[in-house]
Structures are given as C-alpha cells and as structure tokens.
Design goal:
Elements: H1 2-55, H2 61-77, E1 83-84, E2 91-92, E3 98-99, E4 107-108, E5 111-112, E6 115-117, E7 127-136, E8 142-150, E9 153-159, E10 165-168, H3 172-183, E11 213-216, E12 225-231, E13 234-240, E14 244-248, E15 254-262, H4 272-277, E16 281-287, E17 291-296, E18 305-314, E19 317-326, E20 334-336, H5 340-345
Parallel strand pairs: 4-10, 6-7, 15-16
Antiparallel strand pairs: 1-7, 2-3, 4-5, 7-8, 8-9, 9-10, 11-15, 12-13, 13-14, 14-15, 16-17, 17-18, 18-19, 19-20
Helix pairs in contact: 2-3
Length: 358
C-alpha cells in the first residue's frame, strides 16, 4: 500500500511538471508573436513617413529666392546676365525657342523625354522644371539652364544650341550649388580664372581649367544645332553646341565630346582607368572660320575627326550642311542636313564640290 502511494505521488508530480512546461511554452509563444507585430507596425509607420515626405512639396519660394540670388552672383562672376522665367510669360531665347512652351518637344542627349514646368518639383515627369534662366550671348545664340527635379533628385540641364536638345551641365559650381540650395545648405560662388589673352573663335580659350586644358574650344556659330544624315543603316544624328558635339548612331548609341584646348604634351604612360575617365574629352582646334578638328584626349596615333559647314542649293534654296570626316585627310564621310526630311530626300545625292572619301 505504501508503494502504491509513492508511485501515485511520482505520477502526479510528473503531470504537474508537464502542465507547467506547457503553460510556459504557451506564454513564450505569445510574447514572440507580440514582438513580431510591434516590429511590423514600426516598419509600416516608417514607410508612411517616407512616402509622405517624398510626395510633399519639394521646391518652394524660399529655395527659389535663394537660387535667384545665386544666379545673379554666378552670372556676374561669369560676366553674363541671366533672365529668369517669371512663371507666366515664356522666355524667348535668341536661338528661337520659347520656354516652358517648347519643353513638350525637348530631348535630353537626343532621347525623347517628358520635361514639364512644375514649380513644386513634384509630378511623374522625367524632369520637373522648377526654374529657368536664359542668357542671350548674341543675336542668334543663347545659353539656357533648366533647374529640374528628376524623381526628387536635383539636376541642372543646359541647352546651348539652336535646337531643343538638352544635356546635364558639366559646370561643377552650378551642379553643387543647386544641390546645396535644395538641401538647405549654404552656396558659394567662385570667380573663374581670368583669361590672359584672347584666342580666335574661343570665348574661354586661355582659361586654365587644369589637367592640361587651356579652356574650351568654341564651335562656329553656323554649325550649332541638330543635324541628320540618312544611310542604308538608318538615320544618324549630330548635335553641336557651343563647346560640345554629340553623335547618335542608327541604333541609338551615343558618343559625347567636350572640346578643350590642350596646353600640355600627351603622356605615353596613361592607365586604362585614366583613359576611361577622360573618354569624353577631346583635344580640339578651330579650322578656318567654319570648321572644327578633334582628337581623343590621349590619342597619339591615327587621324582625328573633322567637321565643317558647307552650303548647297537644294530645291532652289541655299541650305547649310555639316560635313563630317575621319582620318588624316579632309575627305567627307557623311553629309548632315538640318532636318530628317531633307536627309531622307537627299540621301543618294552626291554634290560635285564635295570631296567624298567613298
């Protein structure tokens, strides 16, 4: 009887222990579930906060006023006077464009995009333009800047040709200070190095820009704009601005060149990384009054590329063309026309006063 009592006590104790374990396990599971719920809730709140911030006004009157002050100072430093778009009346550039009206047909680096005036900087466009500044540097040439927000990121676009093609500015001061204004930080205007003498056909020909660059080389005014050449492969496009040349092949591949005056000899021991970092730089020269020649920044051998304007009578009217060639001689590889229709119409025509390579 005593044995039976002991055994019963052992069994009862075991049951109590098992019941206690089950109870503790259940409590632990509930705590874990609550922790997960709290974490999930915290993540959702954070996401709501980010979304709300991104969907709010990105540009305001205070930032716009700071940009206006900066552009006045920067324009004075560059010896240029910029006109600001007032939000109502289109800015008419000397090159014949009206902004923001003509944004609906604008391209960036030759590609079709959506570019729209939007003073708050919000919207689903590729480029939401919050400010426009224009400087007419001659009766037919202008420099126009569009300060934009692209998916919330501040980007400065520039148009320096007679067409409606834009590209991101290479001006470090404009880029950095627009970001500073957008982020609520201080701006700083540095006066560019003064030229020691003038160089024919170059507005900044002797400015020391570092790394062997003696300033930009300026393209002939008649050459600036967007040009087209039709071949059996399709339509090629050429975009020439004041200091840059962009070529777009039939498959959309883009080659961009920034024209500089070289002041130092080309080194022989250049790394591949260094070459790649300067792949858009060109050592360029003006050829007469209507041409430009250029070579790769580190190119030691082989002929360069050359561009020149040429006039032909087409359909009873005098039309300016751009002739392009590559190699040591001046022979022409491609003839570019001022419109796609004309390029298609004249694609098989050979002119007697042009020296063709083929």
């Amino acid at each position: 009887m005593k044995k039976l009592t002991i055994i019963s006590s052992v069994i009862l104790s075991s049951l109590l222990i098992l019941t206690g374990c089950g109870s503790n396990s259940s409590k632990k599971s509930n705590v874990t579930s609550k922790v997960k719920v709290v974490k999930q809730s915290s993540s959702k709140e954070k996401q709501k906060s980010v979304t709300k911030k991104k969907s709010g006004v990105l540009w305001n009157s205070d930032k716009d006023s700071r940009l206006e002050d900066f552009m006045k100072q920067w324009g004075e430093a560059m010896d240029q006077t910029y006109t600001k778009y007032d939000g109502t009346n289109n800015i008419q550039t000397a090159s014949g464009m009206n902004y923001p009206q003509d944004f609906d047909s604008a391209t960036v680096d030759g590609h079709d995009i959506s570019m729209v005036w939007n003073k708050k900087g919000t919207g689903k466009n590729d480029y939401n333009v919050v400010a426009i500044y224009n400087y007419n540097n001659s009766s037919s040439s202008s420099i126009t800047y569009a300060f934009t927000l692209a998916d919330g990121e501040p980007i400065v676009l520039v148009n320096e040709d007679s067409g409606n093609n834009w590209s991101e500015t290479k001006n470090k001061s404009l880029k950095e200070n627009f970001v500073n204004i957008f982020d609520g930080k201080a701006t700083h205007v540095e006066k560019p190095a003064a030229s020691s003498s003038s160089v024919k056909n170059s507005t900044k020909g002797t400015e020391d820009m570092g790394e062997g660059r003696g300033g930009y080389v300026t393209t002939p005014e008649a050459m600036r704009g967007t040009w087209y050449s039709e071949s059996e492969d399709g339509m090629k496009k050429l975009i020439i601005s004041e200091h840059e040349i962009t070529s777009i092949s039939t498959d959309g591949a883009t080659s961009h060149a920034i024209l500089y005056k070289r002041t130092k000899d080309i080194p022989f021991d250049v790394s591949e990384a260094e070459r790649k970092s300067k792949e858009e730089w060109r050592s360029a020269d003006n050829v007469g009054t209507n041409g430009i020649s250029m070579r790769g920044w580190y190119q030691l051998q082989g002929g360069g590329e050359h561009f020149s304007t040429h006039e032909e009578e087409i359909n009873g009217q005098k039309v300016t063309l751009v002739l392009y060639g590559i190699g040591a001689n001046d022979a022409t590889d491609l003839v570019y026309y001022p419109s796609e229709d004309l390029a298609k119409q004249q694609s098989d025509v050979k002119y007697g006063d042009i020296d063709y390579k083929f």
